[in-house]
Amino acid sequence: MVALRDAARTVGNYRLAGCDLYVTLEPCAMCSGAILHARLARVVYGAADPKTGACGSVVDLFSEPRLNHQTVVESGLLARECGQLLQDFFAERR
Asked: Domains of the chain (ranges plus CATH)?
């Protein structure tokens, strides 16, 4: 959400057509909704989220044909490394 807000501020428009977003973890439904609303061209994520993932792990909002914008989703980029990064992060927080 912060990245989308900062990008919108930088380009002067909430619509980020033609932009790509790279994230460590599969977006949840709320983040996916924001991505679709911003009209991003593509989202690339590393680790799947089997609990709240909205790019296919739990639901697939990006495949919903009734939505007025289609965003390309690519998954698995450095999946193992992203998973380890997240595990290390949350281990430190506990």
From this structure: 2-93 (3.40.140.10)
